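Subgroup meeting minutes
Present: P.N., E.W., G.H.
Scribe: E.W.

1. P.N. recapped why we're keeping a running log of single-chain structure predictions: easier to compare across weeks, and new members can see raw inputs and outputs side by side.
2. G.H. added today's entry (198 aa).
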Amino acid sequence: MADIIRFRGKPGGDDNFITLRPFEFRWGDWGNAFVFMCSRSQSARLEEHRPGGPNTRDRRRIRAVPTHVTLDGGTHYTVTGLFAHREDESSMRRIYRLAGMMECVTKSPSPILRTDLLRRFFRTIEQERDRLGIVWKGSVRNFLIPLESACYKPERFQLAVSGARSLSELFLAIQTETDAQFDILSRRYVFYVPEGFL
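Output recorded in log:
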């Protein structure tokens, strides 16, 4: 259990770990309403300069946050669900797959969803949403967490879902692409969570 969850102790060092896998979640040292995501290299730089960290001689506060992406709007609800299920990779992947389904409805439509199969697709979304206890509120369009284009081309998801010729092909395309994105997020990024999140 100690490899998964580290409890906060004294400031600095590794006291801000929440989980290491499948996503690295850390507590942020600043007030913010949203989770932010940064690359592992940016996170390493930040951790070196946290108060009490290896490269700080005094107790000064962090003056600037690293280059990052703020997860707000639809991605806020996605990362909230991922954080709530942070100890269960299978559920996290299902949540991310569900985010991919939501993206299909709003932003990356498939020709399949212009047929009567749309009703079955929506029923699947509702069932998964209820099982996982996740809801996206308000008028949001982005559900999948944005990735650097060097890691994952922005149009890749849309091309995969638009090429599906049946509902089963559509579900397979969504699963394949969201799993690929999930693996990239797990390998390359760190998520900083504000105190009191959830």
